[in-house]
Amino acid sequence: MYPWDGRNIYFMGFMATGKSKVGRELARLLGWPFTDTDSLIEQQACKSINRIFADEGESHFRRLENQVIREIAGRKQWVIALGGGAIMNDGNWQLISQSGITICLNASVDVLCKRIAEKDHRPLMANASAEEQRQRIISMLEKRSPYYQKAQYHFESREEVAAKDLAQQIFFYLRDEP
């Protein structure tokens, strides 16, 4: 019996830690479906996360996120990548922790800065210089870290490790766990 039998596997962690890439690879290894809460929100809202933040604000986005999490918590044997702030809502955390196992991907501030600078679709980093982004990352990590620590499993997302390799490491670790 594996720790994931009959349960979902949720990937949590800060933006740009690789939750979607690693989650997609783990789902492939397990033969399970994969979804990303941000993608589901975009599909249901018929607009991008950036547009939702610009038009309705973060509080509206968080309400949509809660609706999506309520929906996916009812599924079984899915791999799910959560948005970076999803677990800060106590109701979300309760749904997630009751319906699955939680894996937090961590990355250094330097790795996060590099990855975030490569993408322009991060609304919480919009219109910020590299130094402002770095300070926002540090500040947000300080606030979110206690929530991330609640995860059952923690893995380091490093620049030199491909998502496929990290997913295999997670798979074998969970499979062989006593």
CATH A-level architecture: 3-Layer(aba) Sandwich
Order of helices and strands: EHEHHHEHEHHEH
Tally the beta strands. 5
Q: Overall mean pLDDT score?
A: 92
Question: What's the name of the CATH homologous superfamily?
Answer: P-loop containing nucleotide triphosphate hydrolases
Please give the share of residues in helix: 40-55%
- Give the structural class: alpha/beta
Q: What is the molecular shape? A: globular
CATH topology: Rossmann fold
Q: What is the percentage of strand-forming residues? A: 5-15%
Number of domains: 1
The CATH class designation is Alpha Beta
Tally of alpha and pi helices: 8
CA distance, first residue to last residue: 10 Å
The radius of gyration computed from the alpha-carbon positions, rounded to a whole number of angstroms, is 16 Å
Task: Tell me about the largest β-sheet.
Answer: 5 strands, parallel
Give the low-pLDDT segments: none
Please state how the strands of the largest beta sheet are arranged side by side: 2-3-1-4-5
